[in-house]
Amino acid sequence: MTPSFPTRLLAALPVALLLALAGQHPARASGDFTCSPSWTLAHDTFSACGNMAMLAPGNDTRVNLVLLLADLHPRPKAALVAPAGAGEGGGDDPLFDWPSLKARLFSGPGESFDGGYASGEGSRCRSNEAGTEGFEAVINAAPVPEAERAALIAARKGLAPTCADGSAGLPDGIADQVRSAPGKAFLAYLQGAQAFYAGNFADASARFAALGTADVPWLKETGRYMLGRVEVNRVQVGAFDDYGYPKGADAIAPALVAEAETALGAYLQAYPQGAYIRSARGLLRRVDWLGGRRDKLAAEYAALFALDAPARGLDDGVLADEIDNKLLPSLKAADTSDPILLAVMDLARMRAPAKSGKDTRITPAELEAQRPAFSGNPALFEELLALHAFYVQKQPRAVLGLIPDAARQASFGPLQFSRQMLRGMALEALADRNARGFWADMLTGATGPFQRPALELAIALHEERAGALDKVFAAGSPVRNAAIRAILLANVADAALLRQQAKAADAPQHERDLALFTLLYKEATRGSHADFAQDLALVPADAAAQPTDGNFGSLTGDVAVGVFSKPDVVGDYDCPAFREIQARLARAPQDAKARLCLADFMRVGGYDGLFLDTQPPKTELGGTPSDFPGKPYARLETYRAIIADPKAAAADKAYALYRAVRCYAPAGNNACGGAGAARSERAAWFRRLKQDYPASPWAKDLTYYW
């Protein structure tokens, strides 16, 4: 994978995170450990950080699922979490990863999470703390003598199960201390709980079943519920390998699955509004998952789709994680007729096939066969047909026939936004002259999370391709996203635009600094040395020469423009301050020592491979060749030119040979950019340095070539 920007700079981009995939590993959605987003609108290849606020094949399956669920149950704006830095010109980015979407939508006060049911029973001991609290609350309200109550509460707290090392038993003599009928009922529950936590499921089942005649309603209901949990844990014995992954339905006796389903179903039927209703439903889904019953599991999820988050006890984010982990990896179209699940599967099957793999993308006939399932949501089916036409069939004109123009809306739901964005993408693909106006018409209604920046990306791409980059940075421009503007400044802007933004009083400080840094860097390395001398005056006297994050010239990190004006000497070749190096090159562009000093500035500053010398692909934002004169800088090419220059002084040639060889230290990989050199060429440089300039300090220092 070729990143849009050097990997070392990705940490500074909020949309490009190093994903530590701990815990669950969704089989369909994720897999990247590092990520470089593709700054474009069309995404048909999965990227963990390349999601957008519209349905797309390249989206994480969980993102597509959440967008579809949000269309069924719109969230009030008051429930949304404010974007990070929204008050300081920050906010949503057009491209994002799954954790960012979850934090944006589901991390507000009072959000409903399932307490771990996405992971299911997991450890049977995970409910011990809550169980202790519940037991104490109930027994305090029951007609149990005070002494017995205190003994039973202490015994419950003393269980302290770990499910790995066994559980602490009930205190000796507890049965002799409890003589009342209500007290004995609570003791029977504790004995069942002890057996359950210890893994003695037969004894636990017998004791919980006996609570069916208890006079305390909590004991009767809890006993019925625990019978289901006992059977779930029977199913799980031997169901997982040493790494915690399920072995598959073949490793589980069908009778155990049926018994667990019966026990949980009995609780749900007896207590349709019970205290454990959400847990029981989650455990039933776990049983269906372990038993390989995809059709039943799909039906369970489809039933949950009809409920809003408070009613189901799961927010859309938790639900999407669970479905992605437990259902989607094995789900087939024949297993369900639910339009939401079908749409998520269909989108994943529109992804571009691997270059060396078989094309298994969904066909028009397969899509058409699903039409009856979408009878209640024809707009979604039209969207799928249009997405297939655009991404798979490469027929953007067909999109226009499927999706009418509805750009002017007060607000867009996720599906409406997806439909209109796809129409705009089709207009762009057809080079329709109305495309720019279409995007502008959508701006008013783009009020949902991540919608406005997606439109800003669309407009920025249009202006860039039209050669109208100045419009992006004009007063009143709708493109305000900092990352979009930074990419265009770093890759496409010419000297005049960079100079304009460096001076723009109404631009954010970071943008001004980035524009000035880019201007000075490109002037210094691409031959505009006289312009550099004039523009250096724009650097404030107190400008930092070292970024606080240690990363020079990051797109979104600190930009230390003072590095160009600091008076320090440069490198190892008796070089003057950088401004003097540039002044010498302005007077004599072929001055070998000044060129070597420029290379030392690059080497010492760590600028090799800087993002300003690496342009994104032409299909992405920033991929249009800039009008800035000159070529990207590479130290190795400077060394080569001086080595071949018959007019270069011996000392300069010796230093150039030394540095050219050291470009490959210590691992034999070129760290200086340029076309690269074969090992034979590096050997020739080494021999020439040793033979022609044996008295130079560089020949004496170099003892090896890589």
From TrEMBL:
Alphabetical keyword list: Signal
Keyword Signal: yes
Segment forming the signal sequence: 1-29
Protein name in the entry: Outer membrane assembly lipoprotein YfiO
Biological source species: Labrys wisconsinensis
Species lineage: Bacteria, Pseudomonadati, Pseudomonadota, Alphaproteobacteria, Hyphomicrobiales
